[in-house]
Structures
1.
Amino acid sequence: MGSNRIATRILASITASFLAVVGLGVTASPASAAFDGHCGNGEFCLYYNTNLSGGVADFSNNISNYAGYNFWGTGGGLNDNAASAHNNGNWQDVHLHEAANYSGANLEFNVGVKRNTLGAMANRGSSHKW
Ligand SMILES: [Ca+2]
Ligand SMILES: [Ca+2]
């Protein structure tokens, strides 16, 4: 009885660990694919320098406030620092906003559009929304 109980408990523990690993694999891969320094299909990508160069911040979702985000792999803050951008999405326009929460002036990026400079929005973007 005692050893059976231990065996059951070990089996339950192994099953739980396996499910945890499977669960992590399912949820982690889309997230890591989005913000990985590579401007993949379906992403809106902001660059530290003009001409889509320098550090990149690549997102597949709306971001309501750039504060707290860095260009991928760097310590450089994204907020008010993007100088060029690319809507590599495939279904809808993206609007880059001057202020957080999709407010203030905005610059529209049609599907597939690359802007090597951002004009009045240079170093001012603080949020974006599809
Ligand atoms: Ca990416
Ligand atoms: Ca701003």
Note: The mean pLDDT is 85.
2.
Amino acid sequence: MVAPTWLEKELNEATDVLIKVYGLEVSIEKIDEDKGRYFIDQKRNQVDGIKMLSYLRILKDANSLSVWLTEYDLYIENLNFCFGLAYGNVAIVSTYRLRDRKKDLYLSRLRKELSHEVGHLFGLRHCNNWRCVMYFSNTLLDTDRKSEDLCSKCRMSLGGVINSVIRR
Ligand SMILES: [Zn+2]
Ligand SMILES: [Zn+2]
């Protein structure tokens, strides 16, 4: 058997955490580096997250969730950086600040940030329980402390969202 490439490993972990937390198989893609470069703010040397997200929104059909990874460092207005962002049916997670020499630590951060952004796609807001994946990560320390799963309160509000989708 051929060993999975690093990208395959990232995408497998990403798919796995979304199945585990939300029970959904979502297709996740990596943003092409050349395309990503187009959204770089030259002064900051970071990618404008809102511009990138707006571009991805028109790429995909509006009825399916679309989740992306990028290697570029992201920022949005008023924030020096962000680990990811989500709006409408599109979520982006940046791997830039999650990297670590310890591969397992890196992959666990990736799983948490993905789980967090997809929570936003389902309408979940930030949670004040620091163990909950919907807790806002200001620093990597916050990411490392929280779990990849929803607390019982967020799980209940998610249940409401999923029920209303099914009933529609
Ligand atoms: Zn958030
Ligand atoms: Zn919560």
Note: Helices lie at 6-22, 33-37, 49-59, 103-121, 140-145, 152-167.
